[in-house]
Design brief:
It is a single chain. The protein has 120 residues and is of the alpha+beta class. Helices cover 48% and strands 19% of the residues. α2 crosses α4 and α3 packs antiparallel against α4.
Length: 120
Amino acid sequence: MQYVGLDVHKHKVYGVIMTEQGKIIKEGLFPNKKESYLAFLKGTRDKWIRWVLIQCIHIHIKYDTHLTQFYYHISHRRGKKIAIVATASKFPRVIDWILKNKEPFNPSGLSRTGSSSIYL
């Protein structure tokens, strides 16, 4: 298993990828931009990132949010397994939206300006 640690500041991010034993695989300082995050994480085990997102969604669907509504909408049509994966793939886009607009998470899916973030 690998662990990812990110120390996020306004313009720069310090990132570290480590093994369970504490051996540093990759570390670096990069600009606080989406492309930089993707470049830093490239080469890490995507299956672990996917697993973490799926586990987060299993916990998240217990609460009434727009992601939960999205999950139930898909699960009625396609089944629970596909709905979990679809919601897990939507989760990073919601996180990106929150970080980009510097807004707190709004469970209803609407931003303060009234625009909907549910269809990211």
